[in-house]
Design goal:
This protein has a six-stranded mixed β-sheet with strand order 3-2-4-1-5-6, with helices on both faces. Helix 1 packs parallel to helix 2 and helix 3 crosses helix 4. The protein has four helices and six strands. It has a single domain, classed as Phosphoglycerate mutase-like (Rossmann fold, 3-Layer(aba) Sandwich), CATH 3.40.50.1240. It has about 150 residues and is α/β, with parallel strands linked by helices.
């Protein structure tokens, strides 16, 4: 299994929180990161996005056939994200388009070497692979990409 955590790109300020849209910079960030992902993701990758407008726009930069899950909305728990992703049992790759601090908490939970309180930068991707061995399941960091790197 491959779990790709993608934080929504830069969004405008405002209320209600779930209605905030991407800024022009955010739209550009989403396009650049999605171009990088398209070259690397397996063909049958499942993309799951929070219902917030900014995550919907970020996911749409990658694919139009993504799934929306209220279980990963702002304030979601690590347990909810891992449940939606079916970690570590799912087959193939799953992209979760979500929010901070939840995505940082997921990364810290799966990769104990990452300190608690990790802040996943807007628009960035944390690609984690699950390696299964005899009586062991290990999360391995495959890549971290920030929009500014592309």
């Amino acid at each position: 299994m491959e779990l790709i955590l993608w934080r929504h790109a830069e969004a405008e300020e405002g209320i209600p929180d779930t209605a905030r849209k991407l800024t022009e910079k955010g739209l550009d960030q989403a396009q650049r990161v999605s171009a990088w992902l398209k070259l690397r993701l397996p063909e049958n990758t499942l993309v799951i996005a929070s219902p917030a407008q900014r995550t919907q726009q970020t996911a749409a930069a990658l694919r139009s056939d993504f799934v929306t899950s209220h279980e990963i909305a702002p304030g979601a728990s690590v347990k909810s994200v891992l449940s939606v992703a079916d970690w570590p049992n799912a087959q193939g790759a799953i992209v979760i388009v979500g929010h901070q601090p939840t995505l940082g908490e997921v990364a810290s939970y799966l990769l104990p070497i990452i300190p608690k309180g990790l802040s996943v930068k807007k628009g960035s991707v944390w690609w984690i692979k699950c390696q299964k061995g005899e009586n062991i399941i290990e999360a391995v960091l495959h890549a971290v990409i920030y929009p500014e790197m592309l």
